[in-house]
Amino acid sequence: MIRPAGSNHRPDRGPLPAARGIAVSALPDVRGRRVVVAMSGGVDSSVAAALLARAGAEVVGVTMKNFCYSRLPEESAAASCCSLEAIEDARRVAARIGFPHYVLDFEEVFGRAVIDDFVAEYAAGRTPNPCVRCNRLVRFPHLHARAQALGADLVATGHYARMVRGAGGRPRLLRGADPDKDQAYYLWGITRKLLDRTLFPVGHLTKRAVRAVAAELGLEVASKPESMEVCFIPDGDVRGFLEREAAAREMSPAALARLRPGPVVSTSGEVLGEHPGSAFFTIGQRRGLGVAAGAPRYVVALRDANTVVLGERDELLADRFELEQVSWIAGSAPDGGQAGDVLVQIRHRQRPVRARVIPRGTAGAAGATVELAEPLRAVAPGQSAVVYRGDEVLGGGVIRSALG
Fold first, then answer.
1. Considering 81, 82, 131, 134, which one is annotated as catalytic?
2. Gap between the Cα atoms of 295 and 286, Å rounded
3. What distance in Å separates the CA atoms of residue 145 and residue 159, rounded to the nearest whole number?
4. Is residue 234 pLDDT above 90, yes or no?
5. d(CA 391, CA 173)
6. What torsion, rounded to 10 degrees, do the Cα atoms 259, 139, 225, 384 define?
7. For residues 247 and 148, what is the distance between their CA atoms, to the nearest angstrom?
């Protein structure tokens, strides 16, 4: 369902002021082309829309309503990207620049693909990455489908990533130019077909430059703080969210067991204390363990019997791991050559390491084994591992298990 957010074309306000240094040269020729811009109400997507409008595109702004913000605690609802405040911020930007803005209701599909999976993964002792799953299953496929319905063949977002053309016009996904804000990690699961019709107008800019453009254009979101939390848990209280969601849905006995108290043990089997539910912990966690063990201890395993296992830092090391749900946005897997041919990154902020990737399975059940040139700590099942060659994202997958 598409809900118009009012008439936003305001010719009486005059043209946007010329912004010194406003960067459109990195964009393809979009003059006269209709482009749907995903707008969260933040500065990045707002500047993405402004750059496209300045480059001559016919911009249509859309804000995705992914869940009902009334389900959130009142004090945190306003911080969500689906709040009325965020939608209003996006609408004001559209009115300021002079293009239409709509709200797209994705609540049902987002709930099934992202929120249900988030709860189920934690209840299974895994650590999901909802942003990756949203991009892969909701944001990009459904935005492109809605864009076609609106007569547009291009979709743009405010991600700090770059899409460039390789040999024969092949689309290539690269890291964003700002290493502190790069978001290409979260995009490994989208298809080449969708990447081919996607624009990242701020991917060649730094965050500082984006805010400067917004200020020069007089956009009210220029100094708006950015959210660092999961969009549907803006207060960061994962435990509280899981407890609320578990009470509202049917879950298996095994899943419910992980939400109840159980033992905390050492790797040698010594009982160290009790936890409130193993679903509230993740591999590598150090804080909030609720036990006094002298030397620093980390979560090294979450066992099926609702047991949290603590160990020393070096017990988190792994030099191999298995991937599932593998996808190669570059078009094909690496050739499985010697370690060091590619780089692998298992967290957004973590340093990538040299690795060898050995594809396994078929396209319908693709997997891979990753052999690391140096061991990594806290390889958590459920998280994403992304494969790079230089700055290019080759693909990635979901970590199934750590080995060694």
1. 134
2. 11
3. 19
4. no
5. 8
6. 50
7. 39
Enter the tokens of residue 308.
Answer: 């949290």
The CA distance from 12 to 26, in Å, is: 30
- Between CA 147 and CA 2 the distance in angstroms is 11
User: Alpha-carbon distance 177 to 205, whole Å?
Assistant: 6
At residue 285, what is the residue type? Q
The CA distance from 294 to 314, in Å, is 16
Mean pLDDT confidence for 55-62: 97
Task: Write out the E strands in 176-291.
Answer: 198-199, 262-266, 271-275
Strand duo 317-327 + 392-403: pairing: antiparallel
Higher local confidence (pLDDT), 334 or 274? 274
What is the per-residue pLDDT across 76-106, written as a single tens digit (0 to 9) for each?
545 555 678 889 999 999 999 999 999 999 9
What is the distance between the alpha carbons of residues 103 and 198, in angstroms, rounded to a whole number? 20
Give the Cα separation of 258 and 404 in Å (integer): 26
Lowest mean pLDDT among 84-88, 152-156, 189-193: 84-88
Two structure tokens written together for 363: 């396209």
Distance of CA 27 to the CA centre of its chain: 23
Residue 248: burial class (beta carbons within 10 Å; 0-12, 13-18, 19+) = exposed
- Choice among 81, 82, 131, 231 that is catalytic: 231
Residue 231 known to be catalytic: yes
- pLDDT exceeding 70 applies to what percent of the chain? 87
What residues contact 81, with CB distance under 8 A and at least 6 apart?
Answer: 40, 41, 42, 66, 227, 231
- Residues 251 and 254: their CA atoms lie apart, in Å, by 8
**How confident is the model at residue 201, as a pLDDT?**
97
- Residue 64: count other Cβ atoms within 10 Å of its Cβ: 24
Contact 140, 148 (CB under 8 A): no
Beta bridge partners of 310: 266, 299
Type of residue numbered 81: C
Active site residue 81: no
